[in-house]
Amino acid sequence: MSTLSTTASGPTVRDSSQRVLFASDLDRTLIYSANSMLLAGPDDAAPPMVVAEVYKSAPLSFMTRRAETMLKDLARRGLFVPVTTRTREQFNRISLPGRGKGYAVSTNGAVLMRDGVTDAAWTASIRSRVRECAPLAEVFTHLTVDHPVPGLVRARTAEDIFIYCLVERASISADYLAELTAWCEQRGWTVSLQGRKLYCVPVPVSKEAAVAEVRERMGIDLLITAGDSLLDAGMLELADIAFRPAHGELHDTGFERPHLTVTEAQGIIAGEEMVGRAMTHARRLAGSGAV
Ligand SMILES: [Mg+2]
């Protein structure tokens, strides 16, 4: 199907199929550790899985084999962009379909890669905007010295851009989290608690900013996103169609939007469900030869 439109250079035939993109968070959205995959039911009914990440010579993260097959199809057609809070080094450990090809976003949006090459200008522009926020050292000192995070095991900085702390989850009360969030907000920082990891990130370092940039560069008509944490909320807001799993930080806060679908399943099966739903939309809207 085609439509005729007129431009300054005269009438052109434009394919009516749309350019579609599936931009998705990774941890606890597409890939799952043994502790986060929330398998239920008898062991012999568990889905076949593939290893998505090896760390220190041991398998660490997984997806279902079916999710991988569908993701391969999306990646082969250039429709999939991984978006993660992981640093580049942590991201590079993950073996995803389409690895090293097309766009990828790491470091919570501070790093934009194309065909595995980091876009230095993008990172520079983010670093420039981060200067409007309180310095990383001030927040790090607050978390580790002045008002140490309860149950803090260790604190790390990610590419000198943001901070993440490994914590004893039971030690983090709702009151403490609200207090820290308010303290950070006053300094242009945001807070996210995911499993045993507590993230503090400058507001300009966002997945949605990087995904909006990719959408612009690729000339995307329809954006589909998926994510499970507060750091994914902006990316879900940005999308035309969004998915989140029925588990995780956003689920715990009851995050709902008219264009957002919550999975029926939880855990690693929810990951497969979201890829399947994204693929159904992509196939319907992108057409067979449009990408
Ligand atoms: Mg996640």
Work out the helix count.
9
Inertia-based shape: globular
Mean pLDDT: 92
- CATH level 4 superfamily of the largest domain: HAD superfamily/HAD-like
Small ligands present: magnesium ion
Please describe the biggest sheet, giving its number of strands, its sense, and whether it closes into a barrel. Answer: 5 strands, parallel
Sheet/helix structural class: alpha/beta
The second-level CATH architecture of the largest domain is 3-Layer(aba) Sandwich
The helix content, as a percent range, equals 25-40%
- Oligomerization category of the chains in this entry: single chain
| CATH level 1 class label of the largest domain | Alpha Beta
Radius of gyration: 20 Å
Explain what the structure shows.
The structure is a single chain. This protein has 291 residues and is of the alpha/beta class. The chain has two domains: 16-127 and 206-286, HAD superfamily/HAD-like (Rossmann fold), CATH 3.40.50; 133-202, Gyrase A, domain 2. Helix content is 32%, strand content 28%. The chain is built from nine helices and 16 strands. A five-stranded parallel sheet has the order 6-3-14-15-16. The model is unreliable at 1-14 (pLDDT under 50). Magnesium ion binds at residues 25, 27-29, 228-229.
